[in-house]
Amino acid sequence: MNNNRESIIKATGLEINFNLRKILDNISFDIKNGERIGLVGYNGTGKTTLANILTGKHTPDHGFVEKSPELMIGYLTQSIDYEGSDIFSIDGDLLQHSSELGLKKVYKWEEKRLNHLSGGEKLKLALSNVWASKPGFLILDEPTNHLDFKGIEWLIKELKKFNGPVLIISHDRHFLDKTVTRIFELENTKINFYNGNYSDYQKEKQHRMETQMHHYEVQQRKKEEIEMQMEQLTSWSEKAHRTSTKQGRDFGAKEYHRVKAKKRDAQVKSKMKRLQSELEKNKVDKPLEETKVRFEFDTKGNRGKRIFEAKSVAKTFDERPLFHDSHFYINHGERIGLLGENGCGKTTLIKMIIGETPVTSGELWKSESLKIAYLSQDVDDLPVDKTALEALGFTDRESIHKARTLFANLGLKEQFITKPIRTLSLGERTRVKLVDMLMKDYDVLILDEPTNHLDLPSREQLEKTLNEFAGTIITVSHDYYFLNKLCDKLLIFDNQRIKRVEKKPEAYFTKNNAEPTNTKEALMVIENRIATILGELSLIDQKSPKYGELDSEFNELLKQKRKLM
Questions:
Q1: Strands 335-339 and 489-494, how do they pair?
Q2: SS3 16
Q3: CA 51, CA 139: separation in Å to the nearest integer?
Q4: Is the pLDDT of residue 495 over 80?
Q5: Considering only 49-58, 143-152, 314-323, which range has the smallest mean pLDDT?
Q6: Cα–Cα distances in Å, from 458 out to 44, 46, 168, 205, 454?
Q7: Which range has the top average pLDDT, 285-299, 425-439, 478-492?
Q8: Which of the four pLDDT bands, split at 50, 70 and 90, describes residue 99?
């Protein structure tokens, strides 16, 4: 990496207001060559707005940005909208990067195919386009949304090779831990700076909050002590005033109490002045409490053990085979992660499960009594002219109150839920869809990239809540932390087939990246595969060509097992 650490871009006194609401207030920082910075903060704190100011897309109300006129900024925006015709102007560098990202033979795709790109494919092309512009400074806004694990690992490696500075807006903790060495946090219109990756930031933020809370509590005790003294002096002063005005002939006694009262008044004023001076000089604000995001789920009744079963399932889309001859099952209460490269058919399988898309051949059975909730990647299917509350369609007071509470717990305040949905950000729209799910009782939750556009506290709370859900969860996610915390089984899309794997994602990735190191480990791998084949054979008709392939593999594995033993 380049050791030249001069400032590439410098921001001074930035201030921006939106609809009479202050978003950024007196923000100043500089970014040096080679730095890797993660920009974090709750949704709506101004992260994308700050990125747009740095690129010159937005002009701040006050303050300025200094940068060289020659500085080329590569900016990957959060919302990707690639048209098929755009591809024909793409140069060789972009095609090379597209290939590395898993988009094979992009230049040979027909326009019809290019106009039906998946979210992941659009993002990969946009990333490649940014890379091909040979930027001196990169700004990446949620670069891992829709990227598969192969794409994420590629991006991590490429960023290590890039010499210029990088500013990454992301809620992907794994990605931030692997890429950044400094954190900019936007909070309550201000900016805070932390050294290290995301995990270091979390620890340091907790430490700072605890220290601030300690100083605040010490100050509060001191304040209470002085206020108590003032209360006592005021009480004595009032008593002296009453005594000095009592009717009687003893003028000396009345004068004594009048002087005493005045003295007490002076002491109260002195203590009040001292308290105000103390607070002005060394005032410690109470730390902002982390937003508490609560989700409520309920599931009633225990269905039969097996709720989904696929036998020889195949799906072809526009004459393009996605998968074929696939066998798997899902039991009640399981947490299933769908793993595979972009375009392999994960979202298509979900649509087949919920009945939106038919199977091309084979059988996909599901229990008829299931209540299924589906959170899709698409947040543009909400009625844009309605408010968030109107979109939910509730009319009874109890449901409206519960919905308002859920919106508040998700960080959507009253002013957002009474505005048309078209004015809401992607993250805010995702929250509207989540609240719609949370308001109803379901047996199965199907989540397609559920953490896209959600800020970090919401992601972490969603993980905890889903772990308490008693029903079945099927999820597609490229948030490694989320997937690993939630899922204990996998459906793997590999070589145009879907297979069930009895492992957590971490165990699957570790196993796939490591060869067996001894005989015992090699035997375990063979025995696991034998068990899987026996399970698949029990689901297949003996006349099927697949039965013969599996039977041959089974006999070969038995030979290997005998040899090792």
A1: parallel
A2: strand
A3: 7
A4: yes
A5: 143-152
A6: 13, 17, 19, 17, 6
A7: 478-492
A8: low
Amino acid 542: pLDDT: 73
Burial of 346 (0-12, 13-18, 19+ CB in 10 A): buried
CA distance 98 to 126: 9
CA atoms within 13 A on the CB side of 264: 19
Structure tokens at 289: 């409490």
Residue pair 142/119 in contact (Cβ under 8 Å)? The answer is: no
Which is higher by pLDDT, 116 or 25?
Answer: 25
Cβ distance 499 to 326 under 8 Å? yes
The encoded tokens of residue 385 equal: 């002219």
DSSP state of 86: G
Residue 122, both tokens: 């659009």
Is the pTM for the entire model greater than 0.70? no
Count of beta carbons in the 10 Å neighbourhood of residue 407: 22
Residue type, 556: E
Note the Cα 507 to chain centre separation in Å. 23
Q: What share of the chain is helix, strand, coil (3-state, %, to 5)?
A: 45, 20, 35
The C-alpha atoms of residue 463 and residue 481 are separated, in whole angstroms, by: 9
Measured in whole angstroms, the distance separating CA 221 from the mean position of its chain's CA atoms is: 39
Which residue type sits at 176? L
Share above pLDDT 90 across residues of the chain, in percent, rounded to a whole number:
20
Inter-axis angle of helices 92-100 and 119-132, nearest 10: 130
130 by Cβ neighbours in 10 Å (0-12 / 13-18 / 19+) ranks as buried
* Residue 550 to residues 155, 298, 511, 539, Cα–Cα distance (Å): 37, 41, 22, 12
User: Cα separation of 412 and 434, whole Å?
Assistant: 12
62-67 and 73-76 beta bridge pairing? unpaired
Which long-range CB contacts under 8 A does 479-482 form with residues at least 24 apart? Answer: 479/144, 479/172, 479/173, 479/174, 479/451, 480/149, 480/152, 480/172, 480/174, 480/505, 481/173, 481/174, 482/450, 482/451
Residues whose CB is less than 8 angstroms from the CB of residue 127 and which lie 6 or more positions away in sequence, other chains included: 76, 97, 101, 143, 155
Work out the end-to-end distance of the chain between its first and last CA atoms, rounded to an integer number of angstroms: 50
Half-sphere exposure of 216 (CA within 13 A, CB side): 11
- Using one digit for the tens of pLDDT, what is the confidence trace for 302-337? 544 788 999 999 999 777 888 999 999 998 889 999
pLDDT digits (tens, 9 = 90+) for 113-137: 555 566 666 777 777 778 778 899 9
Distance CA 459, CA 449 (A): 11
Residue 301 CA to residue 297 CA, distance in Å, equals 14
- Across 428-437, b (16+ Cβ under 10 Å) vs e yields bbbbbbbbbb
Here the contacts of 365-368 (C-beta below 8 Å, separation 24 or greater) are 365/308, 365/309, 365/310, 365/311, 366/307, 366/308, 366/309, 367/303, 367/304, 367/306, 367/307, 367/308
For the segment 167-179, the average pLDDT, to the nearest whole number, is 89
The yes-or-no verdict on residue 282 having pLDDT over 70 is no
Q: Please name every residue paired with 16 in a beta bridge, in sequence order, or none if there are none.
A: 24
